[in-house]
Each structure stands twice: as C-alpha cells, then as structure tokens.
Structure prediction request, 487 residues.
Amino acid sequence: MMRRLSFALGLALLAGGAIAAVPASAPPVTLTPDRPAAPVAAKPDARLEQGRYLAIAADCMACHTAAGGKPYAGGYAIDSPLGTIYATNITPSKQGGIGLYTEADFARALREGVRADGSHLYPAMPYTSYAQLTDADVGDLYYYFMQAVQPVDAPARQTALPFPFNVRLSMLGWNTLFLDNKRFVPDPTKSAQINRGAYLAEGLAHCSACHTPRNALMAEIGSQTLAGASLGSWHAPNITSDKVSGIGAWTDAELTAYLKTGHVEGKGQAAGGMAEAIQNSLQFLRDDDVAAIVAWLRTVPPVRAPGQTQAAFSHGSAASEEPLLRGMASSTERHSLNSGAILFSGYCASCHSASGAGSTGQAYPALFNNTATGGSTPANLVSAILFGVERKIEGEEHEAFMPRFDQRSYVQPLTDEQIAAIANYVLKQYGNPDVSVTPAYVAQARSGGEKPVLARAQPFMLPGGIVGILLLIALFVLLRRRRQRKE
Prediction:
C-alpha cells in the first residue's frame, strides 16, 4: 500500500515471550491388531513455528515475493511516489540473500533500516514500525528465515530511483528526524488485550504505514494517526474510532469479519493492498489476536474528516434505469455506448445487478451501503474499475474477483472518459452524489495517482542543486576578493 493500505501483524507476547503455536496433544489411541502404531512424528520446533507465524503476521511474503517467483526471493515491484522500489531477497542464500547476516545485522535492518553492508533501506520497508518489536520476536524471525526458508541464490532486481532519491545516505538524515527507535512499552492503564492489540497493530502489522497521511518529506503525521491516506491511486480509509469518518460505527463482529475475510455486507470490501494483507496475512491470525486488534482499534482517538456528516457506508439504495435504456438505440447505431447508464448496463450490471444490489450471497457486492462508493474520495471506486479486485480466502469456495478494465484488461479496456462516466453514474445512483470524477482524474489514477510534493519537485532538484553550488562558489570568490582588497 502502498501495496500500501501498503496500506500491512506481529505475534509476540507483550513482554517478549513466545507464543505456543503448537497444536494441543491428541487424545491417546488404543492400539489393536488392525491398528498398528503410527510412526513417531518429529517434535515440533516451537521457535520455528513462532517465527513462521510472525513472518505471516508481518506479511513479509507479500512484499518479498514477486508474482510467480520463489518465496522471499525478492523482486516484487513497489510503486512508490518517488519511483519503483524492488523488494530484496531475504532468503538465507549467502550469494543473493541474507545468509551472511548475523542476528544483530538482521535486527538492525528490521528495526533501523540499515543493511549489513551499511547501506540504508527506504521506508517502503516499514522499519519505523518494526522498531517496536521485542528482541525475542526479532530472534524468532531470524531463526525462521535462516532455518526454514529455502535459499535462492539469484539476487533480486536492484532499485534505481532518480536523483536525489538514489542517494541512500540521505536516509541517515531522514531517520534522524523521523525514526523513533524504541521498543513497545505496554500502557499500564490499559488491559492486557488492548496492549496486545496495540503491539500487533503498531508493530508488525504496521497499520499506520498505510492508513496515516504523510508530510512533505514522506513521514507519518502523528497528529493524524490512522486518519486515512492516499496510496497511489488507492485510498487507505480512516480507521480511527470516529463513528462517521472512521470505524466507530462498525460492530466488533463486523471488524473481525473484515480482518478475516475482507468482506462485510452493508459496509465494504477489501481491495488493493488491503486485499493482499488479508489474503496473505490477516486471515491466518489466531482469533484471540484479531480480537485484540479490534479491542485496540476501539481506543484509537477519533479523527473526523472536515465537513463529513454521514458515514461512507450509509449512502445509496437499490435503483435501476434498465427499463429506460431499452430501444433507445437503433439497430445500426455505431456509438451506442454513450452514457454512464448504458456503460454500466453493459459492463457492470451482469455481476452487480441492474439495481446495484449485487448477487445473491454478495459474492459480487452491492454498490450501495459500500464504502468504495460512499466515501469522500472516488479513489477506490476508480481503482477497482481500473485494476480489478482479487482476494482469496481459504475455506471459501470462490475467490473474490472483479476483472480490470485498464489497458491490460482481457475483458475490455475502457477509456478514461468511459470509466469516468461509469464512476459518475454509480456515485449518483448508489453512492455519494457530492463526489464526481473527471477523465483527467482517471488518467492520473491510471498512472499511479497524484504525486506528492517531493516527487513533483524531483525534476528541479538536480538543476537547483547545481545552481545552489554555483551560487556558493560565487559567494566564496566574492568574499575572498573583498578580503584580498582589504589586505
């Protein structure tokens, strides 16, 4: 979230103890002549299982595994506002990965963003959150990666950002300003469950990395924690306890269902980076850990979006204009797809129904009472149309799927004008009618979303730096000449 609401949960005890992720002992079995004794299974390695659980909870796989690639071998492209960052190989390979890392090297990379060779990582790797992890958890993660992950000797593709972002040493100054390298400290005024949830969500889950807006230097704004943020073309929503702008009006059961399945009827569905987080990580968390996160979310200070008076999920109702479209175009009409209603009928109604009510069982969700259509920004609606939705939950017969309609679509690529027309029709019929979409907005989303100030300033940084150096040289020469004249 960026692969965000990059928009991703750690599972260590608050005091740094281990979690027993080992199944309970099976009841004794009575042996009979036709029931021979089973082979004695190897004793489970509790520390390895703990490390594996932590890696899943932190969603390491999502960022460090490229599509079709080997687990943790890197190469996954993270489309940051400053350029494409390629995730590194974190297998225990001594040639291509972290096989030569000591546990101290691993801890420094994880919590300070500094690799074993001394070079700095970019905060697309959320070390600002991982800084809170206990020594025990870091040790268990290291043990898991070194002992259980298959080494891949091929190095991952190297990141090559434009100047000056390619100067990794600049991260030293950024870390000085914005990295709080402190471990998690439980709040004695809160329950053990809430502290547990805080540790999970603020640490390995790095929720704030996607859901907190950032300043001009791309650091999180502390006063707006979890108040919602742009993630390229997507938007990670407000998840504070506010009942209008945040998740304060969601029930515990709804929040739990969302974290485990990515879908709550009448509220919303996970897409983009959040869908990845649920598919690869959150759905596999223990129920008590999910409950702890929900309990902690209730304590997050509410942040109300300026001017918002209605919750995003409360907009809209079923409505259909399908009867009005019949017979409107002649049999020889060549440009009949000329309105949002007609485009919706042709491309959307077959799944979401002509009334926008979705399918039975909501495998294809309703478009009303939906945070993607009722929000104050059309970002997630437009991004879903452009890039589609994929989300697979274990145990469910079918995965959530919506085809993409951008230039890579195998269904039908749609133009910026067509997507804007569909989005505006959906917003008017089923969502927030005060929000509208222009073709220019769709084009911007298609190219990765609005660029932050730092990215927009990048083309001027090199010439600006050169001019600055020349001015300093000129000032030095001028001062020296004046001094010589006085002498």
About this structure: The beta strands are 77-80, 83-86, 229-231, 234-236, 263-264, 268-269, 389-391, 400-402.
